[in-house]
Amino acid sequence: MQSYIINSVRSPKAKTKAALLQAMSMLEMEVYHHENRNLHRIREMQPMYLYRTLVFDPLKSSVGLFMIEVLSKCIHEEEGNEKMFSFIAGRFQALDRDEKVPVNFLLNFLLHLAARLGFSPHGTSGAVNPLFDLQEGIFVAEGSVHPLALDRPISEKLSSLLQDETAELSAAERRNLLDALLQYYRLHVPNFTVPKSLKVLEEVFRS
């Protein structure tokens, strides 16, 4: 995460066009970086990837903005992380290329991001350990249940999704899983709050 200052970006004669700086834009940049400053300057920038559908499709854009908000709440390090960047860029490019948003796209995004942040859910739901413990990140026996454990049906659906990204889920099950994963993030990411864009996303899905 880095912050940059750009002068006169909305001026007709500006070298840097405001369109390059829209949310979700992927850029190649040459920058002036100063170790002891919070704000840096950009010498030159150009598109790294040009979207074909994402910024024009209301549903895809809403999904993308939700992803951006989650990422901004989870990633605070200034050091470079090529693997994380490749994952993020790949998810946005996949969203752009797909004709429609895959029904489990956001759930899988949250699960893969959790793995890269170090708190991936582990195990599978079964007769011995049927419930998922949100605090511990593992499936546990019913005897060890506490308020932070998901109930059996939603635990089983989470287990299915962990084993198969295309697992069949109803709309209600996907929503319940999304709420559960956001609760999981609140427990494992300091100061994490439910993204405000979730309400917008819900409205778009309803329409």
Question: Which key phrases capture this entry?
Answer:
42% helix, de novo design (two linked rop proteins), alpha+beta, 2 domains, 207 residues, three-stranded mixed beta sheet, elongated, 6 helices
Explain how this protein is built:
This protein is of the alpha+beta class. The chain has two domains: 1-50, no CATH class; 52-206, de novo design (two linked rop proteins), CATH 1.20.1440.120. Helix content is 42%, strand content 13%. The protein is built from six helices and five strands. It has helices at 58-74, 82-97, 105-117, 152-163, 171-188, 197-206; strands at 3-5, 26-32, 39-49, 131-133, 138-140. A hairpin with a 4-residue loop joins β4 (131-133) and β5 (138-140). α1 (58-74) runs antiparallel to α6 (197-206) and α3 runs parallel beside α5 (171-188). The radius of gyration is 20 Å and the shape is elongated. The mean pLDDT is 91.
